[in-house]
TrEMBL record:
Gene3D superfamilies assigned to the protein according to its UniProt record, in alphabetical order: 3.40.630.30
Record protein name field: N-acetyltransferase domain-containing protein
Domain N-acetyltransferase: 6-167
Species, as recorded: Hibiscus sabdariffa (roselle)
Pfam families, per the entry: Acetyltransf_1
PROSITE patterns: GNAT
PANTHER family linked to this entry: ACYL-COA N-ACYLTRANSFERASES (NAT) SUPERFAMILY PROTEIN
Coiled coil: none
Length: 379
């Protein structure tokens, strides 16, 4: 490590902001064949976690060089079945080590230091999400740090097309008040894995654009739920940071160019033109997707179209993304583009205390609840 000792300390916005942004810019994440995804944090490298109840960012310094960074957030969630299976969990994200300093134990040390901060703050389990094919990240967390594979939710991304989506007139929609949305989520989703006990804070956050329910026209939304219904909420991630595709697959490029051309040449042709993902763009994140009854899938699809049209009207929102449990049947009704989506995001988990170690063995054996709550504050 040369003649400097590695120092790991908390992020100081005055000293570190520009250097962390520069490091994040230089670190690419994502498999080359799908196109590398760059994040522009708009001058605030901590923006991805600052809406969480408790958070921290650590930086690694070697002499004057800022060589690594990691972020973490803490919250209370459902891990198995309520009311007693609530646990404090720590989410690890944004681990980056400067390319020239890799394979010197810096990534490992940053995770260990963040785990220590978690433990001091009463966290029972640390968890992280990675692409299945990110070998460096997988080997670091699973082989070296003892994390175990936990769940494999699907990330579904749909580009916002140049046209509004057609919405079926057989369904009605309602935007819920925050209190109504909170009580509905507590009633129907509180047993869902990773359901955050401070759901009210998410719904009240200014980035939360609202919660909508859909049901069949002719029925009404009131004291009892309609025979079939669905709900979802929308988070404006683009207000926090922008995304940009660095090096997309040639098929992606060709499809984008040809669909834009088609639209110009044959405007009545119904092929949706795909936006230009090579310029920084914002996106909406759909969370809390839930439905009941035989029409729930169709209702979710219709709600997604409603969100698409909201995105279409906004200035720079070019995609709508969501993440749902791998075995959630509703995922089949969520419009998405395969090339931009990830069918198996890999969530890994580790117990930080002895008592939690035994519980974790049980949790891993238990099949996942069908739905999984993915917190928009951790996107
Ligand atoms: C993943 C990353 C943070 C690792 O940082 P690092 O400082 O190089 O990791 P370490 O030196 O602490 O490696 C510890 C162990 O992880 C594993 N590992 C790390 N990089 C690896 C690689 N490229 N290939 C295979 N195994 C790797 C090895 O087991 C290694 O131990 P070893 O060197 O004794 O074999 C770094 O490669 C990076 O910034 N990648 C780009 C961003 C990213 O993918 N972040 C993770 C998102 S979850």
């Amino acid at each position: 490590m040369g003649h400097y000792d590695l120092v790991i300390r908390s992020y100081n916005p005055h000293k570190d902001r520009a250097r962390v942004e520069d490091l994040q810019r230089r670190c690419e994440v994502g498999p080359a064949e799908r196109g590398l995804l760059f994040t522009d944090t708009l001058g605030d490298p901590i923006c991805r976690i600052k809406n969480s109840p408790v958070y921290n960012m650590l930086v690694a310094e070697l002499g004057n060089h800022l060589v690594g960074v990691i972020q973490g957030s803490i919250k209370l969630v459902t891990v198995h079945k309520p009311p007693k299976d609530l646990a404090w969990v720590g989410y690890i994200l944004g681990l980056r080590v400067a390319p020239l300093y890799r394979r010197r134990g810096i990534g490992w040390k940053l995770v260990i230091k963040l785990e220590e901060w978690f433990s001091v703050n009463g966290v029972g389990y640390a968890y992280m999400a990675t692409e299945k094919d990110n070998e460096a990240s997988f080997k670091l967390f699973v082989d070296k740090l003892g994390y175990v594979k936990f769940r494999t939710p699907a990330i579904l991304v749909n580009p916002v097309s140049h046209r509004m989506s057609k919405i079926s007139s057989s369904f009605e929609f309602e935007k819920l008040k925050v209190e109504e949305a909170e009580s509905l989520y507590r009633k129907f989703m509180s047993s869902t894995e990773f359901f955050p006990s401070d759901i009210g804070n998410i719904l009240k956050n200014e980035l939360s654009l609202g919660t909508w329910v859909a049901y069949r026209r002719g029925e009404s939304w009131g004291a009892t739920c309609p025979s079939s219904w669905a709900m979802l909420s929308v988070w404006n991630s683009g207000e926090l940071f922008k995304l940009r595709l660095g090096n997309a697959a040639s098929s992606c490029l060709m499809y984008t160019k040809s669909s834009q051309l088609m639209e110009k040449v044959l405007p009545c042709f119904k092929l949706p033109a795909i936006p230009d993902f090579w310029q920084p763009f914002g996106f909406y994140f759909v969370y809390g997707v839930y439905g009941e009854g035989p029409l729930s899938g169709k209702l979710v699809r219709t709600l997604c179209r409603l969100v698409h049209n909201m995105a279409w009207k906004s200035k720079d929102c070019k995609a709508v993304a969501t993440e749902v449990g791998g075995s959630d049947t509703l995922r089949h009704y969520i419009p998405h583009w395969k090339l931009l989506s990830c069918p198996e995001d890999l969530w890994c988990i580790k117990a930080l205390k002895n008592k939690e170690r035994n519980n974790l063995l049980e949790m891993i054996k238990t099949p996942p609840t069908i739905s999984l709550f993915v917190d928009p504050r951790e996107v």
